[in-house]
Design brief:
This is ABC transporter ATP-binding protein/permease. 59% of the residues lie in helices and 11% in strands. By secondary structure, it is an alpha/beta fold.
Length: 544
């Protein structure tokens, strides 16, 4: 009944599920012995002498220790299984992230993805419980129902009549619970945005004395989220209270009927106690199924979000159509570069790069320089280039061979060498030598220096050196540098200029920079002005 509503890509092996059910049923079978022990003691108390009591206590304690040890290990085994499946599912989400194309991923809510990995992933436990608990609890109900009928049919039927009340709450609140669950997840994403602002921007908030503003924003979203959570729990707890109501009423009814039978000597006191204990045991799986139903209503939104994300299909991109055999490294003419919503950034009448060298692109902030780099590298969809596909061409050999100093770049806890190579596989000795040469050239931190994040132990300038070395270590024939001298000191900027002057002989280097120190070594300068990109050879102008 649950599985029709909930579908996940989790592959649960039937043998694993069967093993879990067998283990749980074995532990449950041990529990069935305890009511019979109580019956035996109560019905034979007149036959148990004072000297026998210590022996009985030792037997009961010993049996209880063995039984509960097995029950504990069975529960632990089940929890390990759930954790293993959840871990696999987290890996599925991370794998999906790696396979979504960059343009699509850039438009996704990162707070939502964080919640998928941190909060929504808990529904995997609900999914596993659906597959294990339904058959397990169904078997429990059948077994206990048979035991109760064998003891006393009248009291058994009275117990069974109250069962439908268990599910009254979960069905009556189903739609409201699902609606509130969806609202809760939407506000959870908004709250994650505010949490990240508070956690990661504390220093800036302090320096600008903006805590009042940020706390107001945080408390506003937090208040909405908690209001929805409280309303959801109002219905969730109401749903779960119906089984408790039945569990409270049933023992009194059974006790009244059973006490009358005991009084008439139609039933022993031990049998009555045993019956009441077994009744509690039949309501236990029913309660679990009812609670599972309530959890499903509460988790339905998370199931939908996870399935939607894992089922996401990349939009088609004709990025590969840019690359042609026998083409120049880059040739753009009669084209327009636009924003994602189609607003014109600038026109390109003719931008032809036919050989290795350093080519500078300059222009005011917001004119579209970085957008052009994102289009060349495939970070943005090619639909932001308006014009004939034959008017935007790149050399076939360049495809997949582009290095891009992209901002913000990645930095993680690890050595300088690990942060540069971004791999733990065996490294080529020539690349290691080249890395060490560049580290010495830029006076960067030693390759074995351990980088720390949050808080960082690298200055912004030292971080930028890592990014530059990483970019050029890739040995790409086409390099995009977006403000490479950002955060570099005066000396390091001139070191970078000298380095680029050497490297431009071996590759095409496109450079976005507001620093004029690179213009004297540029082979061509392009400028975006009045929504037009045009070539401006400053060196030739200076010579004239």
């Amino acid at each position: 009944m649950f599985r029709k509503r909930l579908r996940l890509s989790v592959k649960l092996k039937k043998t694993d599920i069967l093993l879990q059910i067998i283990i749980l049923l074995t532990s449950y079978g041990i529990k069935l012995v305890f009511p019979y022990i109580f019956k035996y003691i109560l019905d034979n108390i007149n036959k148990i002498g004072i000297g026998d009591i210590p022996r009985y206590i030792l037997i009961i304690v010993g049996f209880s220790l063995v039984a509960h040890t097995y029950i504990y290990l069975a529960s632990y085994w089940n929890q390990k299984y759930c954790n293993r499946i959840t871990s696999q599912y987290m890996d599925d989400i991370v794998t999906k992230i790696s396979r979504i194309n960059i343009p699509d991923y850039e438009k996704m809510s990162k707070s939502k993805i964080l919640n998928l990995l941190n909060y929504d992933i808990s529904v995997i436990y609900t999914w596993i419980n659906i597959n294990i608990s339904i058959p397990f609890n169904f078997i429990q109900v059948i077994v206990i129902g048979g035991i109760l009928l064998s003891i006393n049919k009248t009291m058994a039927f009275i117990s069974f009549v109250l069962i439908p009340i268990y599910y009254l709450g979960s069905y009556s609140n189903k739609n409201k619970m699902e609606s509130l669950a969806r609202e809760e997840r939407e506000y959870a994403d908004l709250l994650m945005d505010q949490i990240q602002d508070v956690v990661y921007k504390k220093t800036s908030i302090d320096l600008f004395s903006a805590w009042r503003f940020f706390r107001k924003k945080f408390n506003s979203v937090k208040g909405e989220w908690w209001d929805i959570v409280n309303r959801k729990h109002l219905y969730l707890l109401l749903t779960k209270e119906f089984p408790q109501l039945v569990s409270t009423i049933t023992p009194f009814i059974i006790l009244l009927l059973g006490a009358n039978l005991v009084y008439k000597k139609d039933m022993t006191l031990g049998t009555l106690v045993m019956f009441i204990q077994y009744v509690a045991m039949i309501y236990s799986p029913l309660t679990e199924l009812s609670n599972l139903r309530a959890n499903v209503n509460s988790d339905i939104a998370a199931f939908e979000r996870i399935n939607e994300f894992l089922g996401y299909e990349n939009r088609d991109s004709d990025y590969e159509s840019f690359f042609k055999l026998n083409a120049n490294p880059l040739n753009i003419k009669n084209s327009q570069v636009t924003t994602d919503d189609g607003t014109l950034l600038f026109n390109i009448e003719n931008m032809n790069i036919s050989e290795n060298g350093l080519y500078i692109i300059r222009g005011d902030n917001g004119t579209g320089k970085t957008t052009l780099f994102n289009l060349i590298s495939g970070v943005y969809f090619s639909e932001q280039i308006k014009g004939k596909r034959s008017d935007f061409e790149m050399k076939k050999e360049i495809m997949g061979n582009i290095s891009y100093l992209y901002n913000p770049s990645i930095l993680f806890n690890g050595t300088i060498e690990e942060n540069i190579f971004l791999t733990d596989s065996e490294k080529d000795s020539q690349k290691i030598d080249k890395m060490e040469e560049m580290i010495d050239f830029f006076n960067a931190k030693d390759k074995n220096y351990c980088v720390k994040i949050n808080p960082s132990n690298l200055s912004l300038g030292e971080q930028q050196k890592v990014f530059i070395i990483r970019t050029f270590l890739k040995s790409s024939s086409f390099v995009l540098l977006d403000e490479p001298s950002a955060n570099l000191d005066y000396e390091s900027k001139y070191l970078l200029r000298d380095f680029l002057n050497m490297e431009k002989k071996n590759r095409v280097i496109l450079l976005i920079s507001h620093d004029g120190i690179y213009e004297e070594i540029a082979d061509e300068i392009y400028e975006i002005q009045n929504q037009n990109l045009r070539a401006v050879n400053k060196r030739k102008q200076n010579k004239q």
